[in-house]
Design a protein that fits this description.
Blueprint (H helix, E strand, L loop, with lengths): L10 H7 L5 H14 L6 H12 L5 H10 L17
């Protein structure tokens, strides 16, 4: 096993090792990481553990992980027949 239950493919660990990695690349890695987690795994718990383990001030992956902890507003439906002019 390459990683552990919080980072199954060790993607986050490797992201912190890449010199000159950009925020966009970190977002892409984060998405792949999120999709690789088992469905029963609590993402917020995993992010917290990974921040404690790897978090470096000023690193773009740290910023992406912190953004992953933020509560997102509930999606609202936009459009549809009610929004069309009559």
């Amino acid at each position: 096993m390459k990683g552990d239950m919080y980072d199954p493919k060790a993607l986050i660990r490797e992201a912190y090792r890449i010199e000159g990695i950009t925020a966009g690349e970190c977002r892409s890695i984060f998405l792949d990481w999120a999709l690789s987690l088992p469905t029963e795994q609590d993402q917020k718990e995993a992010i917290t553990v990974l921040l404690d383990r790897h978090g470096e001030a000023g690193h773009p992956m740290t910023q992406v992980l912190e953004e992953g902890l933020e509560v997102q507003p509930k999606a609202r439906r936009r459009g549809g027949w009610r929004s069309r002019e009559r």
